[in-house]
Design brief:
With about 280 residues, the chain is an all-alpha fold. It has a domain of about 190 residues. α4 runs parallel beside α10, α5 packs antiparallel against α6 and α6 packs antiparallel against α7. The longest helix has about 55 residues. The radius of gyration is 28 Å and the shape is rod-shaped.
């Protein structure tokens, strides 16, 4: 009877993996963030920007807050988008900081590679336990599989190397979704914020031209209201899009750095095994 292959060659149990502690904690349902930000934006628009203290008796704004209120109903929509970008940016910062771990990633990679060169797997795993985070979790799972393949007497060398490579790929695939979580929403805000701001600008300009088209002297109040709506919405739209682009590119770069570190150590683990067996 053919000898049964050990469990080391079997794919990772996804349910068991899901029960493990998340190395990149974060907000799982961003819809609640958007809803809460919308409530805050509407409350600010009604109770602060629209407060009587910001207007004179004729309804003209006396300060910046009153001017923002004149931006119209598009303002709370843009504020919702802007607040969502800020909240998710802070959330991603916390999550990616946890994923990176406690120490410097470059130093961690160098120390693990040094341990591999010495054949000190226990030392490498100790570094992972100290570092914590997503990179350390992937490396530690690969080192565990390395030790299993080292003791395995059934599989050929090529099969063992393939198993190690698969382990690194699967461990990375389990970590990547948590790293990239909520980034698509920030990416969407880069375009959505600009488009909504443009919509508010167009609506403000329409009001301005309507005021100019009045027979006789133009209505200065309506004209100023239309111009205020156009400029305020333009400003909020540009700010939302700009912040979203900056945060998205910044966090994408951080994720790329973590991915490069995982790839580098994974390659070193596989090459070390191939060279020593």
């Amino acid at each position: 009877m053919e000898a049964q292959k050990p469990n080391a060659t079997q794919p990772i149990n996804k349910k068991a993996a899901a029960k493990k502690k998340n190395n990149a904690p974060g907000i799982k349902n961003a819809a609640w963030v958007i809803v809460i930000c919308a409530i805050i934006a509407v409350c600010l628009f009604i109770f602060w920007f629209g407060a009587d203290q910001h207007f004179d008796d004729d309804g003209h704004p006396q300060n910046l807050w009153g001017t923002i209120y004149k931006g119209g109903f598009i303002v709370p929509v843009l504020q919702t988008l802007f607040l969502t970008v800020i909240v998710l940016a802070v959330e991603r910062y916390i999550a990616l900081s946890a994923a990176k771990g406690k120490g410097n990633i470059a130093k961690f990679v160098a120390n693990v590679k040094l341990c591999l060169e010495k054949g000190d797997l226990a030392g490498a795993r100790a570094l992972c336990a100290k570092q914590k985070g997503s990179v350390a979790a992937v490396v530690d799972s690969a080192l565990v599989r390395y030790e299993e393949m080292d003791r395995n007497t059934v599989l050929s060398k090529e099969q063992k190397i393939a198993t190690l490579q698969k382990q690194v790929e699967e461990a990375t695939a389990l970590e990547m979704p948590t790293l990239q979580q909520n980034l698509p929403i920030i990416a969407t805000m880069t375009t959505l914020g600009t488009l909504v701001g443009l919509l508010g600008t167009v609506m403000g300009m329409i009001k301005s031209f309507q005021a100019l088209s009045q027979s006789g002297a133009p209505d200065s109040t309506e004209l100023s209201t239309g111009i205020s709506e156009a400029l305020i919405n333009t400003a909020f739209g540009i700010a939302t899009g700009a912040f979203a682009v900056i945060f998205y590119n910044y966090y994408t770069n951080k994720i790329d750095n973590l991915t490069y570190a995982i790839d580098e150590i994974g390659f070193s683990i596989v090459q070390t095994f191939a060279a020593t067996h």
